[in-house]
Amino acid sequence: NNAHIVWYENRDGNNEIYYKRSFTPIKIIGSPNVGNTITFKISDPNSANLAYGSALSLGTSPGIQLSDGRIIPLNYDGAFYYSLYFPDQIGLSNTFGLLSSNGEGEVQWTIPNNPAIAGMTVYFGFITADNSAYPDSFKFISPPVAVTILP
Question: pTM, whole model, 2 decimals?
Fold first, then answer.
């Protein structure tokens, strides 16, 4: 699930070889059925030992809930928009923690055993932050993944 790219260039007169590897920042383990627990394996190799927060939304992209109840959803290009989507209304909430020394973490959802939420789509993403680098603390914003709750 990763792309490995190697390229060569010598535009400055030096022969140089470059390498880049993509990574899948979010892997889902389990089935999102009502009443089940699913696990999100999250990864950002460049954010080892940094704080992370999951970002949930019932809107079109995941978001971060502020202390006053507003949500800042994250869209695919990483821009912030204010909105009023509340995933906790269906029994899910944002999670915070620290990534491991290799930049990995885990978030678990226990989907409420409520048939009325079957068919809803919840968007999950995460951010990493370096609390010592304020105000430039955000280091990574993952692309969101859509999770449709199954009966």
Answer: 0.72
